[in-house]
Specification:
This is FAD-binding domain-containing protein. InterPro entries: FAD-bd, FAD/NAD-bd_sf. GO terms for molecular function: FAD binding. This protein is of the alpha/beta class. The chain folds into 2 domains: 226 residues, FAD/NAD(P)-binding domain, CATH 3.50.50; 110 residues, D-Amino Acid Oxidase, Chain A, domain 2, CATH 3.30.9. Helix content is 34%, strand content 22%. The strands form 4 sheets. Strands 5-4-13-14-15-12-16 form a 7-stranded mixed β-sheet, sandwiched between helices. Strands 7-2-1-11-17 form a 5-stranded parallel β-sheet, covered by helices on one side. Strand 8 and strand 9 form a beta hairpin. It starts with a helix and ends with a helix. The relative contact order is 0.16. The protein binds flavin-adenine dinucleotide. The site of flavin-adenine dinucleotide has 31 residues, from helix 2 and helix 10.
Length: 423
């Protein structure tokens, strides 16, 4: 069977996309399996491109499991923020429904900023693994199973195995299946706040180093503290797919004051001033995000037909309400590696395609649970009774104690945290 393992090590593996999923896979291939012919082709011109967006928590059964398996835990510990696990839920009038502090004794989901995570993964790869400024445009499959991949800059690369890790709007996906994205019914407006302690002290206090939800009227704010001290704010609302397009504003470029007034009048007309104050202190630009996902009903069950497969958002774009996307991308890397390098005594000759299909089955099973969990969380956040339903979600198995003990006592929160029953 050593021949199988050797054969895998010799494969020319081309990963398209240096996001968390693609970089995680490259790390395991090189560090755990000793593969020397691994290339990650990325459209960004270099690593200095600013990675914005939310802070992330890595989960112990997926993202954190990968970090430990990839021997990156010691470096991760130096830059993660376990205190980012606190959760507060309030309504549109600022009434606090739940405060769930972080307990240092049991950190299950430490937070890390996206840019820090990307740098950690990039630095973990062998020199010259990443080909920057390589924007995938097309590929051609040859009769012997090899694949010729072409990039916008005119270069081509020949590979035995191509892995699409190029995100939600994947250009590799059409070569693998006919799956298309569907609008989730939710549009987000993202912005940041500098010096939050000074400019919005109430919300800063509610964020409590972690995550704050302000929910009412089937919409709400999700606010997080980032490693650089800024708050990142998502205003999440049920709206038509074209709401942002038809607003008449170019959210990214101009009309900053007018956009603030538009949001106040159209979304937050009777919300407490602690929330309109968030908008008043937003720093440019507003980033609109129309959320799309791959429908999970009926269950997706595609199988690759050749030596091309998908990991991360290109395989399974899910809505971000349960914080599972990056975590599942890292779990994909682990599953794919296991399937590629598994010792199979029944396999007479190395069968790459069969191994890819095995990975895809494992991934689909896992992602169905993650996708449903994410959809449930999305529905809760946009429900008329959102605050109470979200409290139930976070209290997990202890939610029945709600009627006996006021939620906001730290006692119940401590119990759920200590025993790991909360989400
Ligand atoms: C608002 C929001 C909040 C989120 N919060 C969380 C969270 O808290 N926790 C969590 O786990 N997940 C979260 N997610 C989901 C998470 O961002 C994604 O699941 C994750 O980024 C997917 O990783 P990926 O590597 O598959 O793809 P991506 O992160 O999209 O990376 C794809 C890479 O491929 C490159 N690329 C794209 N096209 C090409 C091409 N043609 N050629 C070459 N390179 C290309 C891109 O430049 C990029 O570097 C959130 C998502 C959103 C929208």
């Amino acid at each position: 069977m050593s021949t199988t393992i050797e054969k895998n090590k010799d494969l020319n593996i081309l990963i398209i996309g240096a996001g968390p999923a693609g970089l995680s896979l490259a790390r395991l291939l090189q560090q755990e399996k000793g593969c020397k012919n691994v290339i990650v082709a990325e459209r960004d011109v270099d690593r200095s491109i600013r990675i914005g967006g939310s802070s992330l928590d890595l989960h112990d059964d997926s993202g954190l499991k990968f970090i430990k398996r990839a021997n990156l835990f010691e470096d991760f510990k130096k830059i993660c923020r376990p205190e980012g696990e606190s959760i507060t839920i309030a309504d549109k009038n600022g009434n606090v429904i739940l405060r769930k502090p972080h307990l240092k004794i049991n950190s299950k989901k430490p937070e890390i900023d996206r840019g820090d995570l990307r740098n950690l993964l990039i630095d973990s790869l062998l020199p010259d693994t990443i080909l920057w400024d390589h924007h995938f445009t097309s590929l051609e499959e040859l009769s012997d199973g090899t694949i010729i991949v072409t990039f916008k800059n005119g270069t081509t690369i020949k590979a035995d195995l191509v892995i699409g890790a190029d995100g939600a709007n994947s250009k590799i996906r059409p070569y693998v299946n006919e799956v298309t994205l569907k609008y989730s019914g939710i549009s987000l407006i993202e912005f940041e706040i500098e010096n939050p302690k000074q400019v919005c002290p109430k919300v800063y206090d509610l964020v409590d180093n972690g995550l704050f939800y302000a929910l009412s009227d089937e919409k709400g704010f999700i606010v997080q503290l980032k490693g650089d001290g800024n708050l990142i704010v998502y205003l999440s609302c049920k709206r038509d797919e074209n709401w942002i397009k038809e607003s008449g504003f170019d959210f990214k470029k101009k009309d900053f004051k007018e956009i603030k007034e538009f949001i106040k009048n159209n979304v937050l007309s009777d919300w407490s001033e602690i929330y309109t104050n968030l908008l008043n202190n937003a720093v440019e630009p507003f980033i609109p995000r129309t959320l799309y996902s791959i429908p999970f009903d009926p269950m997706i069950e595609w199988k690759s037909k050749s030596n091309i497969t998908l990991i991360g958002d290109s395989a399974h774009t899910i809505v971000p309400y349960a914080g599972r996307g990056i975590n599942e991308g890292m779990a994909d890397s682990c599953d794919l590696i296991d399937c590629l390098f598994e010792v199979d005594n029944d396999e007479k000759e190395f069968n790459l395609h069969k191994r890819l299909n095995k990975y895809e089955s494992l991934m689909h099973k896992r992602i169905l649970e993650a996708g449903n969990d994410s959809n449930d969380a999305k529905e809760i956040v946009h429900n008329k009774n959102a605050c109470n339903l979200l409290v139930d979600r976070f209290l997990g198995s202890y939610k029945y104690l709600k009627s006996l003990i006021p939620f906001y006592t730290y006692f119940i929160n401590s119990i759920t945290d200590s025993f790991g029953y909360s989400k």
